[in-house]
């Protein structure tokens, strides 16, 4: 399978990251709500531990909307997808170290790490929008961590909104692509035996 077809399958199967980003946005919003109406500790634990549920909830969501929840065996990008999934959890010690230094850096540092996590999605999905998403999250995280102090929970709320917006952008791109595929962009069909 050619890379362009593999990327198209990733985009189509995961609807441009729509469900995964909806789940992530809900997680960040829930953490923000706990930061405002609960405790900072509960907010942090909710985001960190809840992150374990993103992948299974995404797969369930994809099945519910009639999308495949995994790629074809021929797709060479499936292993990249698995590797990308581990970038964020393996970066959590950086978030933890920053938080131990200054509690208010939890969300900004997490935003920077999340932005970096989205960079490989540019190649995985073949969608430049993920570079923009990465840049927005990274920039907001840096600004909140260095200049703008508007309360502990602001980073959670901003991230939830950004993820929600980009979820719908990715979905729109894929649905438009599926309605009017360009010549030569069709996925190869498996060979059938006579």
Distance between the termini: 22 Å
Unreliable parts: 188-194
Summarize the helix and strand pattern as letters: HHHHHHHHH
Shape: elongated
Helical residues, percent: over 70%
Q: What is the tally of beta strands?
A: 0
Strand content: under 5%
Q: How many strands, which pairing sense, and closed or not: the largest β-sheet? A: none
Structural class: mainly alpha
Radius of gyration: 18 Å
Topology readout:
Elements (H helix, E strand, L loop, with lengths): L2 H11 L4 H20 L2 H11 L3 H11 L13 H24 L4 H13 L2 H5 L3 H18 L7 H26 L15
Helix pairs in contact: 2-3, 2-4, 2-9, 5-6, 6-8, 8-9
Provide key terms for this protein:
194 residues; disordered C terminus; elongated
Provide a descriptive summary of the structure in words.
The longest helix has 26 residues, at 154-179. It is elongated, with a radius of gyration of 18 Å. It starts with a helix and ends in a 15-residue tail after the last helix. It is an all-alpha fold. The protein is built from 9 helices and no strands.
């Amino acid at each position: 399978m050619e890379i362009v077809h593999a990327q198209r399958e990733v985009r189509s199967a995961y609807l441009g990251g729509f469900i995964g980003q909806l789940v992530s946005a809900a997680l960040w919003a829930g953490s923000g709500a706990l930061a405002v109406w609960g405790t900072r500790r509960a907010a942090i634990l909710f985001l960190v531990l809840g992150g374990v549920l993103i992948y299974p909830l995404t797969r369930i969501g994809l099945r519910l909307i009639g999308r495949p929840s995994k790629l074809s065996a021929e797709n060479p990008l499936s292993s990249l997808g698995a590797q990308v999934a581990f970038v964020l959890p393996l970066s959590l010690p950086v978030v933890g170290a920053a938080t131990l230094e200054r509690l208010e850096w939890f969300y900004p540092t997490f935003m920077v790490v999340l932005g970096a996590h989205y960079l490989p999605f540019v190649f995985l999905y073949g969608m430049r929008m993920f570079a923009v998403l990465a840049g927005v999250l990274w920039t907001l995280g840096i600004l909140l961590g260095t200049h703008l102090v508007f309360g502990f929970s602001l980073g959670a709320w901003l991230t939830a909104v950004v993820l929600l917006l980009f979820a719908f952008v990715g979905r729109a791109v894929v649905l438009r692509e599926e309605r009017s595929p360009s010549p030569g962009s069709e996925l190869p069909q498996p060979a059938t035996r006579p």
